[in-house]
Amino acid sequence: MANYTTLNLLIGGEKITEGRETIEVVDPATEEVIGQLPKATASDLDDALANAKSGFDTWRRKSADERASTLLKAAQLIRERASDIGQLLTLEQGKPVKEAIGETMYCAMLLEFYAGECKRLYGRTLVRPEGSRVEVQYHPVGPVAGFSAWNFPAINVMRKIGGALAAGCSVIVKPSEETPAAGIALVQAMLDAGVPGDAVQCVFGVPDEVSRHLLGSPIIRKVTFTGSTAVGKHLSKLAAEDLKVTTMELGGHGPVLVFDDADVEKALNTMAANKYRNAGQVCVSPTRFLIQEDVFEKFRDGFVERAEAVKVGNGFEDGVQMGPMANARGVDGIQSKIANAKDRGAKLLTGGERIGNQGYFHQPTVLSEVPLDAEIMNEEPFGPVAILNPMSGEDAMIEEANRLPYGLAAHAWTSDPARRRRLAAEIEAGMLALNTGSVSAVDAPFGGVKWSGHGSEDGPEGVMACMVPKTVHEG
Ligand code: NAD
Question: Which residues form ligand 1's pocket by a CB distance below 6 Å?
């Protein structure tokens, strides 16, 4: 097991560790304090803003080749450092170290894709028959402020900084104060690769104070956030005061439609692993399993068997598939939602309890026949709980899938191609997985609709989200 690291702010390329108030960072597997995180002062944030202004001015003028080669170099450094970064990530967040290293490698892959996109930021020319022309150009939107959550301490941060830097924007990122080390290491890799110290910076503090300070400045032209819908709405209102552009990657409540013509074994193997990945603290986690009656019992029994087989433990132990939840409020939240569901008549098929009294471990849990008025049917559980409900048929399943105001990821399992086309047309979601567990890829947009947010990260869309068009008319 690795040692944790000295934590710092990164402002203007300088590591700031001393003379600041600090926030304790806790290992969720042991509840021990492992680090002291310096908080940026108001004057630090003002410095970061002034730097972001000058950083934008220089970085946006770099050639596409130079931006691309710098991002590729950073990707290479991240690949070389992935094992170290992954171990820090497991210490501060809890997930199995193999997943943490995989998450870090995904950051490198995303940067590599974005490096290619630097060279594909095309405009278009409209040539009029009478000889005049209209040129549509794309320009970086300006300095970006990014705020990210603790559930994916690396990739959430890379999604904030990668697209912005590829587009030619400067960026100030505030990773979660609960899981800061992975984000600091990624920003450091960007600096080591040659991104100027005023073009990428990393700050911490009291989240609401930091975001109010940065969003209160006219220097920031775009806000990008990953976290809860409630905070996303709050930041959107702050951004609206100055009409800043926003990308909001918010909560979900993933429906999983399992039809009677599905490959049930494959669906079970894929979705049970998916449900308990990162202890269910995943915005695209499968949550409401809507199962056609004919296959309900088979699916239910197979799912419970798989939930009970999940090996829970410290993310550094061999063979562990699920670590602790990342914080105490996650355990409390899930406990209260399970109690509420039971009160409303849901069946608890397995799990339901916290494990031990040290570390935020929770049993993989399965509820069934959960009524619509239970809290957990309406609010994102963000924990290791699956809801299995029998459903009568396709129309009812689509209606239930679309009932909630969320629309991030949805899954469906069916062998009928016509049904897959109908689902692709009807399901209200930013991402739909048909007969697969996969909903994200570096070259495809990742994002939601309705209360799950707007704007995309990843794919060409992740770079375009940091650009604005300028139309040049020539007579
Ligand atoms: P939260 O929204 O309060 O916090 C998420 C992140 O946002 C944290 O890292 C926090 O530091 C930051 N944050 C909070 N308030 C902020 C502010 N005013 N300005 C800037 N940043 C701010 O959520 P939580 O309590 O940590 O988790 C609870 C719920 O959040 C979950 O149930 C889930 O719905 C949602 N969530 C979603 C994602 C996602 O990937 N979409 C990630 C984490 C949490």
Answer: 147, 149-151, 176-177, 207-208, 211, 226-228, 231, 234-235, 249-251, 283, 380, 382
